[in-house]
Amino acid sequence: MKTMQANVVTPDGSVFEGQIEMVTVKTTEGSLGIMAGHLPLVAPLTIGIVRLKNDSNIQLVAVSGGFMEVRPDEVSILAESAELPSDIDVARARAAKERAERRLERAKKEHIDFKRAELALKRAINRLEVAGS
């Protein structure tokens, strides 16, 4: 199967670089799978899991928004934040999830920034899913 270069980059630096057969992402319009030779495309990403497949290996990356640029031989993901499973502190992610759940409950009652609390919870859940916890 044909491969393409994949790069996942954040403001803090590169998270992943390598050859892949397919990438699956969550865009603002839904899930999208890209293979080598795809037409050029730019798509905004949401909080979600990026799956980078090569042979039978799948590398997961927790991404918190950003953009994906596709060219026939390369896909670049420019993410606000991105973490590999090995980089995720599960205890910290669980604590963040619990804080976000409490903040979301308060937001419902006190009419504070509900959207911010909801996004914090989504980010925490996404990180835990990638970490396998």
UniProtKB/TrEMBL annotation:
Principal localization reads membrane
**UniProt superkingdom:** Bacteria
The protein's matches in InterPro entries, at most eight in alphabetical order, are given as:
ATP_F1_dsu/esu_C_sf (IPR036794), ATP_synth_F1_dsu/esu (IPR001469), ATP_synth_F1_dsu/esu_N (IPR020546), ATP_synth_F1_esu_C (IPR020547), ATPsynth_dsu/esu_N (IPR036771)
- Topology within the bilayer: Peripheral membrane protein
Keyword set for this entry?
ATP synthesis, Cell membrane, CF(1), Coiled coil, Hydrogen ion transport, Ion transport, Membrane, Transport
What biological function has been recorded for the protein in this entry?
Produces ATP from ADP in the presence of a proton gradient across the membrane.
Stored NCBIfam families: ATP_synt_epsi, PRK00571.1-3, PRK13446.1
Q: Which family does it belong to?
A: Belongs to the ATPase epsilon chain family.
- The name under which this protein is listed is ATP synthase epsilon chain
